[in-house]
Amino acid sequence: MCGIIGYCGQEQAPALLLRGLKDLEYRGYDSAGLSVFAPTGLQIVKTAGRVADVEEKWDRQKPKGDIFCGIGHTRWATHGAPTERNAHPHRAGQVCIVHNGIIENADSLRAEFAAKGYPLLSDTDSEILAVLLDAAYARTGEALSAIRYARSRVVGSYACAALFSDQRDVVYAFRKDSPLIAAKTQIGNFLASDFFAVSRYGDRYMIPEEDEVVVLTKEELLICKENGERVVKPVYTVQPDSRDTGKGIFEHYMLKEIFDAPDAVRKTCEAYMRDGLPDFQAFDTQNLRFQASRIGIVACGTALNAGKLGRYFFETFAGLPVFCEIASEFRYYTPPLLPGDLLIFITQSGETADTLAAMREAKKQGVPTLAVVNTPNSAAAREADCVLYTHAGTETAVASTKAYIAQTALLYMLANEIAARKGRLTQAAVRENMRQLDSRLPVGMANILADCGTIQALSDVYCADNASCFFIGRGADYDLAEESALKLKEVSYIHCEAYAAGELKHGTIALIAPHVPVVAIASGERTYEKTVSNLREVRARGARVLLVTDRNPSAELATIADDVYTIPLRGDLFALCAAVFFQLFAYYGALRRGCDVDKPRNLAKSVTVE
Ligand code: AGP
User: Fold this and answer.
1) Ligand 1 neighbour 300 (Cβ under 6 A)
2) Degrees, nearest 5: CA angle 514-520-524
3) Taking the model in full, what pTM does it have?
4) Which regions in the chain score pLDDT beneath 70?
5) pLDDT at 286
6) Active site includes 605?
7) From CA 376, how far away is CA 258, in angstroms rounded?
8) How far is CA 560 from CA 142, 547, 574, 575, 578, in A?
């Protein structure tokens, strides 16, 4: 998603804006730019490509003299190709803006203002914000009333920062649905899409509401209503583990975050375990609804895949009926919700537009909402009736890895807690499950991480030149197959599909031909043999089969798979442990194919538009 940053203070703004844009690069983008109050007036430098390209262009074009104020943008194209013409900032008359979000009625507004003779210089929806602000500002000369007018005309989502050419060294910003923070630091006043863009300069920030305006000057940061009335805001402090500590010894953030998996499990256990048992007492009064009669899990992408594994835990341990819904479907096709429901919204960023909209729909219907979130003070954390934080630490790579691990670990604990309260599991059984989670699982993950060379060799064989790859499993293994397929797909661009192993023969097996790679996940007792027979079916048709299993290597296994990888951790946590294998498998597949591992094409870390 787009990233925005604004600065006003005593330091040279261009360098700070460009640094901040680099810290926002992880969000995924295809063009960038900045606008500053140069000695000669508003100056814009922007280009398709990377922030480094903007920096180079700025170095060529920068004016002499001090520059204390400006705004910057990284664009993830939604309306209009990723070109210089469509890059932000956009200018209309006296106003220059950057925007993160989608203006849904942009076409009708563009037609209206084009008919009034306004020149529209780009193909974007965002440009209309500059036009609306300028049209109103030309009438009133007041920035706040111009903002009020623009808000009254647009439909959609926005975090918008604006400069008004005759208000030197002042930045205005306002939001709806899209994230925006404001931070007063030792070196001046900032605003940004998320805290990581300014975390170098301090650890405290504020979050403007949707009827407020942020105003930055060299001397102060104020947040006010559209009528100018100042607002006192709570100040959030970033926790140390939420700060981005860089890649360290690792070549990519994704690899570092995969290696963080054991720690993510331990930190999540520390947060919700006391004396060897789950401890959610602190949430009893917060409407966590331990007595729910049904659970709905709503999320997107990897977070939804974590929810599907969580469904297995809730159904297996607590005997609870669980439904899982894609958030972008739920928000428009909301299934009938029942009085005893508890809806769980899982989101690493806490800012995913579809998940937030789905949560708001659930709240509108009066259903209790629980958010499982990794990013402190994010919108989901603020808006849910109750929030359980995962403690995976900052996740920077676009592909979610350690957050998935922490999400599933937390859901495992919650399922055990609810099972205990319903009398379906004895305290001894829960204690044993927690021991497995807190000690055996991190060790099992560490063993896989230590074997990354073997996994890279397997990935080279299965990912090198293949255009497609199938992942199959049953039960929790199928839930893991879905996440494993997404992980490999999104970083290596191989077309991957996950299938319930028993479903292949109902059509998809037509795609199995000699050398087509099939990765099978088979563990436990209930359906292991069934999956093995499905493997025989695909092998008989020439597929190249990799089996990931909890069984020890044997002569028999060698007859059903070309390659076998054993993860000797039996039971319900096998899928959670094996997830680390598949994250490494995907990482090496992307590396082998020369893909941009941390910032895959077309993707963004937090999808704040629908
Ligand atoms: C994860 O690898 C993907 N990048 C993506 O599917 C992600 O999980 C999804 O967009 C949800 O993000 P969230 O957890 O921040 O809501």
Assistant:
1) yes
2) 150
3) 0.85
4) 239-245, 284-289
5) 57
6) yes
7) 21
8) 74, 8, 21, 21, 20
- The tokens for 121 are 């210089």
Distance 400 CA to ligand 1 centre (A): 6
> Ligand 1 within 6 A of 390 CB?
no
Q: β-strands 158-164, 69-75: how paired?
A: unpaired
pLDDT at 23: 86
Per DSSP, the three-state class of 9 is coil
Q: Which token pair is 484? A: 């494993």
Task: Give the E-state strand segments of 82-217 in sequence order.
Answer: 90-92, 95-100, 158-164, 171-176, 181-185, 188-192, 204-205, 212-216
Q: End-to-end CA distance of the chain: give it in Å, rounded.
A: 11
CA of 410 to the centre of ligand 1 (A): 17
User: SS3 of 272, please?
Assistant: helix
Q: What is the pLDDT of residue 310?
A: 98
Cα dihedral value 332, 336, 337, 339, nearest 10:
150
The finding on whether 348 has its CB within 6 A of some atom of ligand 1 is: yes
- CA 330 to ligand 1 center in whole angstroms: 16
Can 69 be counted among the known catalytic residues? no
> Where does residue 184 fall: left (phi above 0), alpha (psi -120 to 50 degrees), or beta otherwise?
beta
**Distance from the alpha carbon of residue 396 to the mean position of ligand 1, in angstroms:** 12
| Residue owning the nearest CA to atom 5 of ligand 1 | 301
Give the pLDDT of residue 288. 64
Output the CA torsion 341→347→352→357 (10° steps). 10
Distances (CA, A) of 434 to 318, 414, 477, 550: 15, 11, 21, 20
Q: Is the CB of 398 under 6 A from ligand 1?
A: yes
Q: Which of 229, 236, 231, 213 is nearest to 164 (CA)?
A: 213
